[in-house]
């Protein structure tokens, strides 16, 4: 056994030793299922905050027109990395003229030594427009969006890079990133940050500052990014409830410059740490004529081609010994559709001897005991859950509900030691505020007409077993809900070896408290108990 095979075992030993010295026991999923626990909202905290203004230092443009800004990384394969950025000035007004992407080159220079860039790669550029043919509404056209795929990289290696157009002497400062390890049962990313429903409020700022302190090597962003659709096209002030504030809007408007502000807000992190995104309902952003998701589709590079999905709405990638599947809740998920066919093929091709861990993520949770979005995506669960269970997905991350909830292992609403651990982390801090009501609270059970999804059908059902049998809502916290709390925050996943992973949920209010967090547990795989079956 070489050192690379020994280090995960050593890390696990250090974890347990440290906690024993500290007198603290970290539970494992082997001790579950756990008795349901609820931590009520702390009334000393605010339920939410307003969005940061566009002239806030973290949102304002800091470079001249032709220089790169909003620089972001995304994984493609273990030996390739996407670099994306924007040049030029976006336009907003009654009439807008798109910029010509061919006027600026998409170039990246990179190497393994600071200041020395022997490698060079060109990419592609595009622009998009968000058009509203309604009286009084403003149109938008973006700056030039650049995507360059760096190839031939060495795994587990630090690279330095600059991006821009050398012919215009418009090149960024030097940035740095580290590639992830090759698929292996003994090699894993250091820390994976998981966050959803982030937005651009002061709470979002605390979330990102806290996340940066935790030094992740990769970010999973599980939908609902900047909340540009909480605004009218004129900008002004965003609203926590769009339909309440703007009942006469002819369409769900957006203020697209919020996307540019979000790109600048995230750049200090995403220019050095790859961020993998999936769409949420706030990315739909409809235009007249049926065009949706335009900003999401054009601004973010994802490994759709490398994973064979050919769609930005769903894809997969490897991160050392972890295979991550990102699924689309707002495109066809029926078992007769393209996404399901791709998912089944992707799962069939898995080699769990190389990637023992199987993690899935999508925006809208299947298991959720909050009143908000209760059973909203029951149709998607009914279409896809059995396939994910068959291939023994270990962990599922979702957002959408603006609170935290970790489930006991569950399948088809039944406690099951071979079911995934479902975790909701839609508590990034957005303008819509934190969710505090539970479906089992007196008078808080939604009606069958509530929580209508923005995509897909309605499959609400009554509980078939247990204390809530025959009812739409439980009369107490469901047995599959292990822990729930209404606080803003983010999560960190640290995979230690092929069977142990440490999950920690960090609450925003704990940012200045050393070794403090809202939830922590070792998630333990049991492949000998839960063998994969292949009957579908």
From TrEMBL:
Annotated Purple acid phosphatase N-terminal domain residues: 68-179
EC number: 3.1.3.2
Segments forming domain Calcineurin-like phosphoesterase: 191-404
CDD domains: MPP_PAPs
Segments forming domain Purple acid phosphatase C-terminal: 472-510
Signal peptide stretch: 1-23
Chemical reaction(s) catalysed: a phosphate monoester + H2O = an alcohol + phosphate
Keyword tags: Glycoprotein, Hydrolase, Signal
GO molecular function, one term: acid phosphatase activity
Family of this protein: Belongs to the metallophosphoesterase superfamily. Purple acid phosphatase family.
Name under which the protein is recorded: Purple acid phosphatase
Source species of the chain: Thalictrum thalictroides
């Amino acid at each position: 056994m070489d050192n690379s095979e020994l280090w995960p075992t050593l890390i696990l030993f250090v974890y347990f030793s440290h906690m024993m010295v500290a007198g603290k026991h970290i539970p494992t999923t082997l001790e579950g299922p756990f008795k349901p626990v609820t931590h009520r909202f702390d009334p000393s905290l605010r339920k939410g905050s307003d969005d940061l203004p566009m002239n806030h230092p973290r949102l304002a443009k800091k470079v001249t027109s032709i220089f790169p800004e909003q620089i972001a990384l995304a994984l493609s394969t273990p030996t390739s990395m996407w670099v994306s950025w924007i040049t030029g000035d976006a336009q907003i007004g009654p009439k807008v003229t798109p910029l010509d992407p061919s006027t600026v080159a998409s170039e990246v220079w990179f190497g393994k030594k600071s200041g020395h860039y022997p490698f060079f790669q060109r990419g592609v550029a595009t622009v998009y427009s968000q058009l509203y043919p309604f009286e009084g509404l403003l149109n938008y056209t973006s700056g030039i969006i650049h995507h360059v795929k760096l190839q031939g990289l060495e795994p587990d290696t630090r690279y330095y890079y600059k991006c821009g157009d050398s012919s215009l002497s418009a090149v960024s400062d030097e940035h740095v990133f580290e590639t992830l390890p090759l698929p292996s049962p003994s090699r894993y990313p250091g820390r994976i940050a998981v966050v959803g429903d982030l937005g651009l409020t002061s709470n979002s700022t605390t979330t990102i500052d806290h996340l940066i302190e935790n030094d992740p090597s990769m970010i999973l962003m599980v939908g609902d990014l900047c909340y540009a659709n909480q605004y009218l096209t004129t900008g002004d002030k965003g609203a926590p409830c769009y339909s309440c504030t703007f009942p006469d809007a002819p369409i769900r408007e957006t203020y697209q410059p919020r996307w540019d502000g979000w790109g600048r807000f995230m750049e200090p992190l995403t220019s050095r740490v790859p961020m993998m995104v999936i769409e949420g309902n706030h990315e739909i952003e409809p235009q007249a004529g049926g065009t949706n998701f335009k900003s999401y589709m054009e601004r973010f590079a994802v490994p759709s081609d490398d994973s064979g999905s050919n769609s930005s709405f769903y894809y997969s990638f490897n991160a050392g010994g972890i295979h991550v599947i990102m699924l689309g809740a707002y495109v066809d998920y029926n078992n007769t559709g393209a996404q399901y066919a791709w998912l089944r093929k992707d799962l069939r091709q898995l080699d769990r001897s190389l990637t023992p861990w199987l993690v899935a993520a999508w925006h809208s949770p299947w298991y959720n005991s909050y009143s908000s979005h209760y059973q909203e995506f029951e149709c998607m669960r009914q279409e896809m859950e059995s396939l994910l269970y068959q291939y023994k997905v270990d962990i599922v991350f979702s957002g959408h509900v603006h609170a935290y909830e970790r489930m006991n292992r569950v399948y088809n609403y039944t406690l099951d030691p071979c079911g995934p651990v479902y975790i909701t982390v839609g508590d990034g801090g957005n303008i819509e505020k934190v969710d505090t009501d539970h479906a089992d609270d007196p008078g808080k059970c939604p009606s069958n007409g509530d929580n209508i999804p923005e995509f897909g059908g309605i499959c609400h059902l009554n509980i078939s077993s247990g204390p809530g049998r025959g009812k739409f809502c439980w009369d107490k916290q469901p047995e599959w809900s292990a822990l729930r709390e209404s606080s803003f925050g983010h999560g960190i996943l640290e995979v230690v070896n092929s069977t142990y992973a440490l999950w920690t949920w960090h609450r925003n209010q704990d940012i200045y408290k050393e070794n403090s967090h809202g939830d922590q547990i070792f998630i333990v795989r049991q492949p000998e108990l839960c063998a994969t079956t292949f009957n579908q």
